[in-house]
């Protein structure tokens, strides 16, 4: 095994940080650690959720990205207005591949960019009138929408528009929920605060809408929280839960609807996949409605089996049997997948740098395939995420928070992973360096990767990427020839 | 003063501050009887907070106001 020892990893960190000015070096050193599985808390070793340094290249997004792109955007029957200049909405449109069932433009609206398209005069005179007009236009053109959310972009906060007043007035006029979301991009240090703001606005404007209304309950009602149905992930998770006998009342928010969200306070248990983006609302529901919540992990057969059993433990024997039945049904299939791909992937090293849950959640899936994760890190995690990560990762592996372009490049050059899993911003840099790469934000236009069905696709995709013959063809013919000549001379 | 949420897990009380997203175990609570509950609480990260002593809540989690006395934020 070529994995580095603790001393070597520490030396590597020092070497990489060498190029920074002293102040920056001191700051960045706090964000990188060598893992020690015996630690209970990450606080002493890693600092997270701090403002990125000016001058370094960060991969982070903004609060608007966290609210519109992650939490609100995938709700299919609500229209999310990108309130402000046109670019924020247009360049983020459809980027996350949140799949849904529905007819776009008739009853589903995720793929369409609704924006108030701010011009100079809206900055000078305010955009409230335009917003009110926009909402009534939407209502006329798309009467089947179930509600509207107003996602503020930076200028709205800067000029001090009162979108709450517009929203309240419009909600009365059209008789549907209109939710103002104060997720201006300058708030917070990353998209993480956008998740929080979005959760808070769901709590304040949506969640209690149906309190006191009749709802046909069963003892097996659950809600899937923090699954954004990227490439169909939520569907692959949902069928497993339904197969074991549970009733999935709501999907938050991939392929989810407003009605589902409003019905969520009636469930027995909230199942939380992306802890970072939806723990806030889970905590609120626990306090207000007494609904317990638990985190689960549907990446790779080992973790799925663990999670299914943990979920079943909250219910009676009927569900526990169901969980065992589901596990027994899929185990032979999974063994086939592993038998096929493990010999091709065994012993390969992976480096990850993703968003909120995958740096720790996919570790189990790679391990099922005999691969080893040598480095991982989050763009916008908080310390509670790192507390959870320390347990998942091997000893003396590298963990980095808000890694910069320079750091990632150098770590990859030194550690020579066989595969990198990260996002679109990193993808082509590493392709040019000749390292196999998979996007772990959008699954590189593949997916789903959740659930048992997803694992088969995950394994196939990793094999397709890693063992692709193109990696041997990256050198230009003339530079190859020169090398061979040198060899001959020597 | 800040809003905090106190919940219980299998190990004991857990402290959570939504504003700063700080979650930590509560190592000790000054008063923990049905009639009097709260007072000085000590966290795993070294923080010390004070909750106005009150009757123990009927159900957890509960959001309360707390004052930071000492330790990291």
From TrEMBL, chain A:
Cofactor(s) the protein requires to work? [7Fe-Mo-9S-C-homocitryl] cluster; [8Fe-7S] cluster
Q: Which reaction does it catalyse?
A: N2 + 8 reduced [2Fe-2S]-[ferredoxin] + 16 ATP + 16 H2O = H2 + 8 oxidized [2Fe-2S]-[ferredoxin] + 2 NH4(+) + 16 ADP + 16 phosphate + 6 H(+)
The alphabetical list of record keywords is:
ATP-binding, Iron, Iron-sulfur, Metal-binding, Molybdenum, Nitrogen fixation, Nucleotide-binding, Oxidoreductase
Nucleotide-binding in keyword set: yes
Q: What is its EC number?
A: 1.18.6.1
Entry keyword Transcription: no
InterPro entries the UniProt entry points to: Nase/OxRdtase_comp1, Nase_comp1_asu, Nase_comp1_CS, Nase_Mo-Fe_asu
**If you read the UniProt record, what top EC class would you report for this enzyme, in one word?**
oxidoreductase
Molecular functions (GO terms): ATP binding; iron-sulfur cluster binding; metal ion binding; nitrogenase activity
**Which residues are in the Nitrogenase/oxidoreductase component domain?**
62-466
Q: Which GO terms describe its cellular component?
A: molybdenum-iron nitrogenase complex
User: What is the role of this chain?
Assistant: This molybdenum-iron protein is part of the nitrogenase complex that catalyzes the key enzymatic reactions in nitrogen fixation.
UniProt subunit comment: Tetramer of two alpha and two beta chains. Forms complex with the iron protein (nitrogenase component 2).
* Similarity comment: Belongs to the NifD/NifK/NifE/NifN family.
What protein am I looking at?
Nitrogenase protein alpha chain
TrEMBL record, chain B:
The record's annotation in InterPro entries points to: NifT, NifT/FixU_barrel-like_dom_sf
Which Gene3D superfamilies does the annotation name? NifT/FixU-like
Q: Which GO terms are recorded in the biological process aspect for this UniProt protein?
A: nitrogen fixation
Q: Which Pfam families match?
A: NifT (PF06988)
UniProt-listed NCBIfam families: nifT_nitrog
What is the recorded name of this protein?
A: Nitrogen fixation protein NifT
Report the source organism: Rhodocyclus tenuis
> Organism classification, top ranks?
Bacteria, Pseudomonadati, Pseudomonadota, Betaproteobacteria, Rhodocyclales
């Amino acid at each position: 095994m070529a994995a580095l020892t603790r001393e070597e990893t520490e030396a590597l960190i020092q070497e990489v940080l060498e190029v920074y000015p002293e102040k920056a070096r001191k700051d960045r050193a706090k964000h990188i650690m060598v893992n020690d599985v015996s630690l209970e808390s990450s606080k002493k070793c890693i600092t997270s959720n701090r403002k990125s340094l000016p001058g370094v290249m960060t991969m982070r997004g903004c609060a608007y990205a966290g609210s519109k792109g992650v939490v609100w955007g995938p709700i299919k029957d609500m229209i999310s207005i990108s309130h402000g200049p046109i670019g924020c909405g247009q360049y983020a449109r459809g980027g996350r591949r949140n799949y849904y069932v529905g007819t776009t433009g008739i009853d589903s609206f995720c793929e369409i960019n609704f924006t108030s398209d701010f011009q100079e005069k809206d900055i000078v005179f305010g955009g409230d009138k335009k917003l009110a007009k926009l909402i009534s236009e939407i209502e006329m053109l798309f009467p089947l929408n179930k509600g509207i959310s107003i996602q503020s972009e930076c200028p709205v906060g800067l000029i001090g528009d009162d979108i709450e007043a517009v929203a309240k007035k419009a909600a009365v006029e059209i008789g549907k929920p209109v939710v103002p979301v104060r997720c201006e991009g300058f708030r917070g240090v990353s998209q993480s605060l956008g998740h929080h703001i979005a959760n808070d606005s769901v709590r304040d404007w949506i969640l209690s809408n149906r309190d006191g209304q009749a709802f046909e309950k069963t003892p097996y009602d659950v809600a899937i929280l923090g699954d954004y149905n990227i490439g169909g992930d939520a569907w692959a998770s949902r069928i497993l839960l339904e197969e074991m006998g549970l009733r999935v009342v709501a999907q938050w928010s991939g392929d989810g609807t407003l009605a589902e969200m409003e019905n969520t306070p009636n469930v027995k248990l909230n199942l939380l996949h992306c802890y970072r983006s939806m723990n806030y609302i889970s905590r609120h529901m626990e306090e207000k409605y007494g609904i317990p919540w638990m985190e689960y992990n549907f990446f790779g057969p080992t973790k799925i089996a663990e999670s299914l059993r943990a979920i079943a433990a909250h219910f009676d024997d009927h569900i526990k049997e169901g969980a065992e039945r589901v596990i027994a049904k899929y185990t032979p299939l999974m063994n086939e997948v592993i038998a096929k791909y493990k010999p091709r992937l065994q012993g390969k090293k992976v480096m990850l740098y993703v968003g909120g849950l995958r740096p720790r959640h996919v570790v189990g899936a790679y391990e099922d395939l005999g691969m080893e994760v040598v480095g991982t890190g989050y763009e916008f995690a908080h310390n509670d995420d790192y507390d959870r990560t320390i347990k998942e990762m091997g000893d003396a592996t590298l963990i980095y928070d808000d890694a910069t372009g320079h750091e990632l490049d150098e770590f990859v050059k030194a550690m020579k992973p066989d595969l990198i899993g990260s996002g679109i911003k990193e993808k082509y840099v590493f392709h040019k360096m000749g390292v196999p790469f998979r996007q772990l934000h959008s699954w590189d236009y593949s997916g789903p990767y959740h659930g048992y069905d997803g694992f088969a696709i995950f394994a196939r995709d990793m094999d397709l990427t890693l063992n692709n013959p193109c990696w041997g063809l990256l050198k230009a013919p003339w530079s190859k020839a020169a090398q061979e000549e040198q060899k001959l001379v020597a | 003063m800040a809003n905090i949420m106190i919940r219980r897990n299998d190990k004991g009380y857990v402290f959570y501050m939504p504003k700063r997203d700080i979650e930590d175990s509560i190592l000790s609570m000054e008063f923990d009887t049905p009639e009097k509950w709260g007072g000085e609480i000590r966290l795993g990260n070294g923080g010390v907070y004070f909750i106005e002593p009150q009757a123990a809540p009927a159900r957890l989690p509960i959001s309360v106001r707390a004052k930071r006395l000492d330790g990291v934020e």
